[in-house]
Automatic annotation (TrEMBL):
Pfam families cross-referenced by the UniProt entry: PH_NISCH_C (PF25625), PH_PLEKHM2 (PF23142)
Protein's UniProt keywords contain Phosphoprotein: no
Gene, per the UniProt record: Nisch_1
Species of provenance: Loxia curvirostra
Lineage: Eukaryota, Metazoa, Chordata, Craniata, Vertebrata
One GO term (biological process): lysosome localization
One MF annotation (Gene Ontology) recorded for this entry: kinesin binding
Name listed for the protein in its UniProt record: NISCH protein
Amino acid sequence: YPSELLMQKITEDNQIPVHLHVSVSLQYVAGLKGRALVEFFHSNIAEVENEELRHLMWSSVLFYKTPSVEVMACVLLSTKAIYFLLDDSFIHADEHQSDFWNKENSDCENSSFHLSCCFVLKLNDLQSVNVGLFDQYFRITGHSADHIVTCLTRDSYNTHTFIQQLMAVLSLLARTPSPEPVDKDFYSEFGSKNTGKMENYELIHSSRVKFIYPNEEEIGDLAFLVAEKMDGLTNLPSLNILLYVLAFQVNHFEGSAQNTSSLQPKTLILTSSDLFLFDEDYISYPLPEFAKEPPKRDKYQLADGRRIRDLDRVLMGYQTYPQALTFVFDDVQNQDLMQNLTLDHFGE
């Protein structure tokens, strides 16, 4: 340890997404290669001497205690824990949550050091991993509200790779075996399914950590919700969700010293007739076991919705990933004018 293959893989993965800005301290980490990166992990991050770094990933993260603050992090998976090396701007982003972080180093702010917070989730404390729709994100749950983190990879490949590495590392943990399952007869096995609602797919790992995947009903629920937002203009059985993707909406600020743009996280949903942008709660659902009350906001909140028939043109940028798309709509004052005229003219 470390093997040449591992060092090469970690070096390749150590790249900050180009569209996201990070602090100087994380830029320093992103500049490390190969053995220097492994040595940095052991001298600055690792908690015990014999743990091995297995995987590195850059991702936006959300914490259960601060659901409105999305922050960039370098996620490091070792044989003992998952480490989230956080952008130092996060400490000042949400003042009322300051008790969540111990600000012992606040007197160092004016020095030449660049400090980062490191949030540690030990693998022994891990209880479940919820994978989001179409592998766009995943939520890691520990034993309390302080130990719930969502990684917004916005990339099914990164999600899949991390889950595979996490399963491999969990296999090394020595945990007491689960009690043997009691053999059920045919009637008790199928007779208990009287709720009419299918449970999410659960894979219980040998380390007793649950990996929970969404089922088809989540798409059905989402289609029903989308149809509600469309005020019943569309026939629900014919409504198909063609695309679900976590994206950013670009808000451009002109007239400032330099024309700047901010990226607002949005969930984009495309149906056969409409294009929707939702504000989605990626951290609160499904409810953790210790939650006393439901979250303050719904899982999906409609931010914008337009009919495809009003789409005039789509402008595509020439840059590489991530691709920028501009949708230009013909905005009719009364959106339903055309539809109502058609109905009146052609029959009941």
